[in-house]
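Format notes (please read before filing issues)

Several people have asked whether sequences and structure tokens are stored in separate files. They are not. Every record keeps both together, in the order shown below: the sequence lines, then the token lines. Line labels are part of the format and must not be stripped during preprocessing.
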Amino acid sequence: MTPDPPDLYRFQKTTLHIVLKITYSFALYIILSLPGLCYAQKDSRHEDIDLLDIYREVFKQEPPRYTNEGSSKEKVNFTILPAAGYTLQTGGAALLSANATFHTTPDTTDNLSTVTSSLTYTQYQQIILPVQTYIWTNKNRYNIVTDWRFMKYPSFTYGLGGHTTEADQYRIDYSTVHLYQTAFRNIGKGLYAGIGYNFDYYWNIKEVDPPVNERTDYAIYENGVKSKVVASGITLNMLYDSRKNPINPNRGSFARVTYRPNFTFLGSDANWQSMIFDLRHYFQFPGSSKNVLAFWNYDWFTAGGNPPYLMLPSTGWDPNSNLGRGYIQGRFRGRNLLYLEGEYRFRITNNGLIGGVVFANAQSVSEQNTNRFEVIAPGWGGGVRIKINKFSNTNVAVDYSFGLGGSKGFFVNLGEVF
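Then the structure lines:
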């Protein structure tokens, strides 16, 4: 059972207090230790330090050996992070996150391949298990992209369109499996064409605490509450990627266009289509500066029949659940969505251990009756970055974000938001 509002408030307040206390203690330790840590176990070829260097310095362990290229002798740079925290959509949460970066061939000029995964259990009895891979073959000829996930996911919904309010909040409970697989083939410098298959299955769907004596937008849209939903479709993709490290890009561009027609002959409940434009660009400041200005545009459209309510474009439902910092996941939902974000990433310490970001974003979903974009919902905030693996350039990202109507909260990632 999800806690009643008074208990939920007390739990969130206690959880937030613990998170802030741990964060403060860690930050104080880092600040007091910085003069010594600036010299912690550096290799002459690598000026930055990370939390592993601090660990070795504290426990007097030898640093890893390096090749002539200046990277770790290990072929795979692996990062694992157990953590406890709080986010708007999960409440208190315990999670174990991991990622690995590596080259699939001895040629280090090829793009870095990545594997990321995590296991999360939350206050709202949610279970979240994603596995995502981004594998590059020799000479970047092929790019194999995997996005598999299982979720037991009681969560909040607010109805359709941009005019919904916090008072419209209620819970929908469901379990779901997503199996997305795409293979890209190089057709030009940095340009790829790809084909894939996407399968979504939702079951045990139920409205937990809908408004009394009132039909919800979900029930109206679906013409009743369906206990299960299946969507099955091929995908046609175009990809341009000039980034070297997708976990923490410092320059280059990324553009992906995905068209997905769902067909009943493939097992889908209905025929409908979606198209997603995911565009990103990164500017590294000139000279010795390692600060980065990053931009992200994510546009999501549906057409042809009625896409399932739970698969409509919505806040925080991009593949990495990062769209719309400042708002809870699912806060805005509609048949179409437009999104734009800008972020400035900067170093706080010269050794790269601690950095910071400031960001602003704006989103808009189309209205159900008019299909027009009538409301723009801005979000803004800032955060800190703590380097936990300097070879994969992986940071722990902790942001505090604000939105309209008093919306605010923590957002945590292993790796950059985009």
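For reference, the curators noted about this record: Confidence is low (pLDDT under 50) at residues 1-41, 66-73. The helical segments are 5-37, 51-58, 217-222.
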